[in-house]
Amino acid sequence: MTESHQSTALPSTTTAEPGEPGCAGGLTVLDPPGLTGPADTPTGPADDLTAPSTAVQDRLAGRLSDITSLHEHTERLARARGLDATLDAVLASGAALLGARRGVLVTRLPGGGPGQPVGLGLDRSSLGALETVPTEQSLLARLLRERDRPRQLHSPDLATDPAIGARLRELAVHLGLGGAFGLPLATPEEGPLAAAVWFYDEPAEPAECRRELARHYSEIAAPLLAKQLEADRTRRTTEALRRGLLPDRLPQTPGVRLAARLVPAGLDRSSGSDWYDAIPLPDGTVGITVGSVSGDGPGAGPGSAPGAAAAMGRIRAALRAYAVLEGEDPVSVLGDLELLLKTTEPTRSATAVYAWLEPEERRVTLAGAGHCPPVLVGRNGAEFVETSLSAPLGMLACWEAPGVEFTAGRGDTLLLYTEGLARRCGPTLHAGQANLRRAAADAPRDVRIDPDRLCAHLLAVCPAPETAATATDDLMLLAARFE
């Protein structure tokens, strides 16, 4: 294994393939001993006269091709959205520039070690095997050093390189890895951010022009990667704080089994924040609720989502207090919440449903404020619990709505959900609600009798026009099954 700023000349050459960098050396492939052919010699005066001009033109054409290729790959990197897409782009473009087919990339953890590997042309088992290489033998670990970090790292043949540790040589034979070339991705401000190593299928190494292109690309990619890593850290921290505003576990109440699912949208895209909660009350009953807080008034965009998440935490905490004080009267609970919202959050509105459950009698009393109607799943199907039409909290001068009371059957499950889940299940809110009810009714019996499996089933069967990376609404589902 060589750590250097210079490449080592090897005994044979091939030309670049079409569509790849136009450097004359292309990929240097090691010939077996004794098989290197004789050098070409001039055949006459005409060759002597035309060779300089042709060589200059070839070099100019090659450099133009290199610049074009580098521009195309940096454009592709600039269009990548999110950390995962950026890492994939770095791996794929590096492989194309170097003429390699496989590669592995890791980001640097806060403690300095390599994180979870991302692979190109390597399956999960191969990546897992590479993770078993001891740190002192790891090529990636060398490239992540804070000090004495090599500018580049290359080995013509991993399987026979005496500078490679025994474990890595063994894996090179097992995985069919030939030559390798690695680069750090670092900036002067942040230091090492990530490291990538690309592999050839045979003993080989890239010509110097390919290495130069790859180094230029990594220098361009490093600052962009730094921004993506910072954005990812911010997102993870924010989501952790956001999840901390919601219950980390549901209470165990005799006579009723509870389960919930939350798939939050990114705060950089969402303009609201949803909640769910289950509150054990002093008399052995339980209050359950789901709701959604919108952003900073009409027309609020995604930039208002962090504020809405903080407001959601405050409103949920207030609702818990109101539930303890007067949980048997859902209308009063939501009425108090309306007054609080108007007094302390005048630019916001919220939809909510609150249900008071009496497990022994299987009696349910609930009220809703501009929220999706709950679904009651029984042995004979599923039906909506029709709450009266009412405006969201904070929208009118005074919120009013009657409560709804009914008795559930043994084994029935009450589903509360937010608008994001309904919209995921259909092209319109109404169609999504109907599809969600139908999916609950059609669920297999062994799924319907388990609230946790029912929640997972409904998230799985509803079509997903949006991915987690592009979703703009939280998905929230709370299920309560009467035993």
Written overview of the protein:
The chain has 483 residues and is an alpha+beta fold. The protein has two domains: 2-29 and 54-237, GAF domain (Beta-Lactamase), CATH 3.30.450.40; 246-482, Phosphatase 2c, domain 1 (4-Layer Sandwich). It is 38% helix and 22% strand. It contains twelve helices and 18 strands. The chain has a six-stranded antiparallel sheet with strand order 1-5-6-7-3-4. Strands 9-18-17-14-15 form a five-stranded antiparallel sheet. Strands 10-11-12-13-16 form a five-stranded antiparallel sheet, covered by helices on one side. Strand 10 (272-280) and strand 11 (286-294) form a beta hairpin. Helix 1 (45-79) runs antiparallel to helix 2 (83-98) and helix 2 runs antiparallel to helix 6. It is elongated. The N and C termini lie far apart (66 Å). The model is unreliable at 5-19, 31-47 and 465-469 (pLDDT under 50).
Find the CATH superfamily of the largest domain. PPM-type phosphatase domain
Shape, per Cα inertia axes: elongated
CATH class of the largest domain: Alpha Beta
Helix content: 25-40%
Order of helices and strands: EEHHEEHHEHEEEHEEEHHEEEEEEHHHHE
What is the fold named in CATH at topology level of the largest domain?
Phosphatase 2c, domain 1
Low-confidence stretches: 5-19, 31-47, 465-469
Strand content: 15-25%
Q: Helix count, per DSSP? A: 12
Class computed from helices, strands and strand pairing:
alpha+beta
Order of strands in the sheet with most strands? 1-5-6-7-3-4
Number of strand elements: 18
- How would you state the average pLDDT, rounded? 83
CATH architecture label of the largest domain? 4-Layer Sandwich
Radius of gyration: 31 Å
**N→C terminal distance:** 66 Å
What does the main sheet amount to? Answer: 6 strands, antiparallel
